[in-house]
Specification:
single chain; four-stranded mixed beta sheet; RemA-like
Length: 84
């Protein structure tokens, strides 16, 4: 299954390690982690400036998403049933 992060970005759910609120960036350790990730060019910003709501950590990248943590969580938990 896949998870839509906004901005035409879809990732495999199995690659998601964590979904963090953008306010977590105020923490000194998170701020340092994000600075290092920016230097290593592993951050992909898909939210417009001022519209950032969450960080999605995956095996390969960190995505800055315009979609809230709670919405992403609901999307990740959603199971689609089809009739046979």
């Amino acid at each position: 299954m896949f998870l839509h992060l906004g901005g035409d970005v879809i990732i495999p759910k199995k690659d998601v390690i964590a979904i963090l609120n953008v306010r977590a960036a105020n923490s000194p350790i998170t701020k340092e982690f994000l600075e290092i990730a920016m230097e290593e060019k592993t951050v992909r910003i898909i939210a417009k400036k001022g519209k950032e709501k969450s960080f999605v950590l995956t095996r390969e990248q960190i995505f800055v998403s315009p979609i809230s943590c709670s919405t992403l969580k609901k999307r990740a938990e959603m199971i689609i049933f089809t009739e046979d």
